[in-house]
Amino acid sequence: MSEFITILIAASPVLELRGSIPIAIGVFGFTAQKAFLLSLLGNAIPAFFLLLFLPLFANYIAKKVVPIEKSLNWVFERTKSKHSKKVEAMGLIALFLLTAAPLPLTGVWTASILAFLFKFPFNKALPTILLGMIVAGFLVTALVTGLIYII
Questions:
Q1: How far apart, in whole angstroms, are the C-alpha atoms of residue 79 and residue 3?
Q2: How many CA atoms lie within 13 A of 68 on its CB side?
Q3: In 3D, which of 6, 28, 30, 2 has the Cα closest to residue 18?
Q4: pTM of the model
Q5: What's the total number of domains in the chain?
Q6: 100-138, pLDDT tens digit by residue?
Q7: Residues with Cβ < 8 Å from 106, sequence gap 6 or more?
């Protein structure tokens, strides 16, 4: 059951693997390797589904609910105008860094939404985001195990 909870935490939009790895190691007593692998599995699930289905979902909602369409368009256009120069200049590196940095408001969910907004192709966005996820997992695991060792 604790394995399933770890996967669910890693798949969640707020905690992702930044929350699942410390919980798996500190609370459930998993080895670093087990916590890392379960967290990668859980964190990869939303990346795949968001990149694949977010365009369809946004299009469907926009057509069915007019007020939501206006709100979505406003958010999308504002985000694009605010960040387009940076994203265009950095390309896939922006997705990688946004996923790899273990900071608040970064991760698979944010990078997947960015990939959708800036129309990165699925076959390029997914491997880039997954690579960033692996780097973030290594960083979080190293930090957690280092803190446990120090304590």
A1: 36
A2: 9
A3: 6
A4: 0.85
A5: 1
A6: 998 888 999 999 999 998 999 999 999 999 999 999 999
A7: 98, 99
